[in-house]
Amino acid sequence: MSSPTPARVSPDISPPPGGRWAAVLALAGATFSVVTTEMLPVGLLTPLGDGLGVSAGTAGLALTLPGLVAAVAAPLLPVAVRRADRRRVLVGLSLLLAAADLLSALAPGVAALLVARALVGVCIGGVWAVAAGLAVRLVPAASVGRATAVVFSGIAVASVLGVPAGTVLGATAGWRWAFAGLAVLAVAVAAALALALPPLPAERTVGTGELRRVAALPGVRRGLAVVGLLVTGHFAAYTYVRSVLERVPGLGAGAAGTLLLGYGVAGVVGTFAAGPAAARGPRRTVCVVAAGVTAVVALLVPAGGSLGASALLLVLWGFVYGGVAVSAQTWLTAAAPRAPEAVSALIAAVFNTAIALGAFTGGRTADTAGATGVLWLGVGLALLSVLAALPRPAARRARRTRRPESAGGPGRTAGGWGT
């Protein structure tokens, strides 16, 4: 397929003053800010727990709760704002994110922090559901795939800049200042969205009926199952990656931040590497990504005694996982090309449910079986995602029989791996 979304540009959308790509970059800024805020507890888990007087597993709820709320908000928010201009929706969500970050910075205890983190979940679900499908409305058809990769690059860049920067700021000035810095960032993103995006009136309303119809499509249903398993496995292990790294002899807090930076840089590279590959064969790309995550996390188990091996594997982990969001979005959008916002809402719901479930199960496993148990949990779930993504032999034969004339065409890839 030539692009992950319908080949069109809305005729009523005029180029924004800074150009179409400025608008795409503003969307990337929105995904960067919400994902940085969501993932910040990963780098601050120990000081956060110490500062609030709770265990690491309890501190992990600061990641679990936003994921659960985002999973509910993602499908409901497009229904609630069905006729609202998407630019106004995104600006409003960014301002709400700023308020939630400020409340997190001022939280006197874990209960207040979790209330603020619940508001973060609303922002995460809303931004994912709305922003992920807007590239097709902003750039020419030939550039939709690249623009979608740019929007999703905000997720990987959050690992490169957001989480490591927050980790460093938290280590030097305290975890509260890390959240305060994110509040300032969210205000800046709101301003960028207001200036760079053109008016984006709702093209079609998204109701609960359409969400159910899209979710029932076989390709969408299977893709969501794969995403759920893979992301749950990833975050079961990654949420407690600091505990994993602390097994390495002589590794201090500064070195841990450096390794997380390397993970994030590799994730950006992986995002852009996966974009063109997913356009040619989205399911195949998801299979490769899932197999890569499985192998790398499994190898981290025996690598705990070696700094060099752990560093290399963490970078490889970032590279392969960097392709998850863009390849999953491409696969599921191809399965329901006329409902991009509904698909985005469903992906966001499953993705964030998986983040919350992964963080929760990882926390329970970390408290009972330690870092090694967390890694094996991630391996098992990622392996199940590989098995779920593989095309069934009967289905592959049926596709070849049904579409022999389309060999080499835009919707066909070798071995029936296109969708």
UniProtKB/TrEMBL annotation:
A matching Pfam family: MFS_1
Cellular location(s): Cell membrane
Principal place of residence: membrane
Entry membrane topology: Multi-pass membrane protein
Keywords from the named record: Cell membrane, Membrane, Transmembrane, Transmembrane helix
Residues that span the membrane, as ranges: 21-40, 52-77, 89-108, 114-136, 148-171, 177-202, 223-241, 253-274, 286-305, 311-331, 343-363, 369-390
UniProt-listed InterPro entries: MFS, MFS_dom, MFS_Efflux_Transporters, MFS_trans_sf
Gly residues: bias regions: 408-419
UniProt-listed Gene3D superfamilies: MFS general substrate transporter like domains (1.20.1250.20)
Domain Major facilitator superfamily (MFS) profile, chain residue ranges per copy: 22-397
Domain of life: Bacteria
Gene Ontology molecular functions: transmembrane transporter activity
PROSITE patterns found in the cross-reference section: MFS
Keyword Cell membrane carried by entry: yes
A cellular component term, taken from the record's GO annotations: plasma membrane
Region Disordered: start-end pairs: 397-419
Matching PANTHER family: CHLORAMPHENICOL EFFLUX PUMP RV0191 (PTHR43124:SF3), PURINE EFFLUX PUMP PBUE (PTHR43124)
Protein name (Swiss-Prot/TrEMBL): Transporter
Organism field: Streptomyces antibioticus
